[in-house]
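Need C-alpha cells for this chain, all 550 residues.
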Amino acid sequence: MPTISWQVDLSDPALTRSVDHLRADLARAGWADAGWGDVPTGDVVAVVADRPVRGAETLLALGRPVLLVGPTLAAGDADGVLADAAGLLTAHLTPAHDVRVRAATGSPLATRLLDHVHGGSAHLGEHTHVHDRILLVDKVADDVEPLLLASVGLLAQPVATWRRSAGVLAFTLGGTPAALDTRAVRRLLVLALRHVTEAVVPAPVRVGLLGYGAIGHEHSRAVQAVAGLELAAVCDTNPERVAVATAYAPGARGHTSPDDLVNDPDVDLVVVSTPPASHAPWALRLLEAGKHVVVEKPFAITTAEADEVLALAAAESLLACVYQNRRFDPDYLALRRAVEQGRIGTPFQVEAFVGGFGHPCNLWHSDDAVSGGAYYDWGAHVLDQVLDLVPGPVEHVTAATHKLRWHDVTNADHSRVTMRFVDGTEAEFVYSDLAAALKPRWYVLGTDGAVVGHWRTEKVVSRNDVGTLAEDVLSPADSPPLMDLHSADGSMTRLATPEGDLHPFHTQLADQLQLGLPMGVTGAQSRRVLGVMEAARESAARGGVPVTPR
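Here are the C-alpha cells for all 550 residues:
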C-alpha cells in the first residue's frame, strides 16, 4: 500500500484526536504513516485543517496526489489555490444533519462501488448514513470526477471528488469529530484512496457455515446482505438442515461432511456454529487449511485453547474472532453512549442480570461438559459487554453456583460471578433459572449518576384459527430493556435505545478482510472474556476463593 504524509493544522482538540484515530486506523489498514518533515515523503499528501492552509502551492507542486480531508477545503488558503486545484467553486457549510451518501453514477469509482451483489452496491448499498456538515458546491470543473454525492434539498452535492489533472482528492466528509470517528466515513475514505492510487479492492470474501442450527439462518441472512461477503457453502451433518440452508441460499454449495468444507478451495472464511467444546479444534483445523475463522461464543472452553488458536492465526496472517453479537444490543449501546458522554461520571459499580424462573433447555446449552456451564452461555455475552464497558485489567474473580432444582441438566441453576478491577471498580453478573423475581438487567453506579435497565414483558397479539384472542408472551430477554438515567439531582431521563447498524458484526468483518479497517470485536477481547469465565468456574469449584484470570 502507498504511504501517506499528514499535515494537520486544527484549532479543535477533539477533531485533532479524531484525526489521530483515523491515522492509526489507516496505518492498521496498510496505509503506512510517513509523517511530515521538511519535505513530505508519502505517496499521498494528506491535509486536515480548519484554518487557511499554508504553502498550498508547494504541496501541489510535489507531483503526488493531495488529499484534502474534512474541513480543509472549507478553510481554504490565502490565495484560493486549493479550491482552484480541486476544480470546485464552494459556497458554505450546512449545519450538521443526517446525510445520505451514495456513489456518483458513471464514475470509475461508482463502477467499483456499484458492483451489484444481492441487489445492493458492493460497499455502500443504495446509500450510507453520515451525520455531518456538508460543504455546498456551486460549480464543478469539467474535468473533475465526482466520486461520492450527498443529497441536500433537491441537489446532489459532491462530497468526494478527484481531479486527475491536478492530483487533488477533495474529501469533504469528516468535518466534525463525531463524523470522522464513524466507520462509515473511514470506509468511504479508504475506498476513495484506493481509487486514486489505483489499488485493487479485493474480491468478496467467500464464506462457509459449519453447523446450521438455530443461529445458522442469522449468519446466512447477514452474509447475503452485507456487501463484500458471499455465502459460498453450508455444512451440517443433518441433510435436512443442509436442504433448508441451500433453499434460502440457492447459490451456496451444500456439504454434509465437515471435511469437505475444510478442504473446499472456494471458501475463504468459515463461521463455526458447533457446540463450544468443539470450537477450538475446528478453528485450528480451518486455520491450518488457510481459512479465516469466526466462532460462535464462547471462544473455547479454556484460555489455553484460545491462545493456541490466536497464535496460529497470527502465524498464518489469518483472522480468528468470536461472534459477539450482543455487543450491538440497543440497551448496551445506550448504556455505553451514556458512559462515554460522561453522563454518570466514572462508573465504579456495574451489575448485570439475566434469567427467570423456569426449566432450562435440554439441548447442549445446558450440558456443563459441552457448553462450559452457565457462565459460558449467557455469560459469554454479558461479560463481553461488561469488559467492553470497563476496559481496565481485572484483579481477581470470585464466583458461586447453586444446584437446587433442575437435576436433569448439568448446568448450575443459579450462578454469580464478581469481578474486581485493578482500579477498584467492581462488576457482578448473575444468571439464574430460579429467579421468581427479576433483578434489573443493568444497575450501573457512577460518580455523577446511575443507569438502570428495566426488563419489560411484551406480547404478540393475534387471533387463533377460530378468531379468538391469541397472545404470545415473550420472555424478558427477548425485548430490549428500558434504560433510565438517574442524575445526581434526583431527576430521571429515559434513554433512547439506538437500533444501530444492520448486521454490524458482519459489516466489520467485510471491512477488515477487504479494506483492512480494524474490527471493534477482536479475538483478544473474547480471549479476555474467556479468562474471566474460566476464573469464575475455578472460583466456584473452590468455594468462592478469589482467582486471577489467566
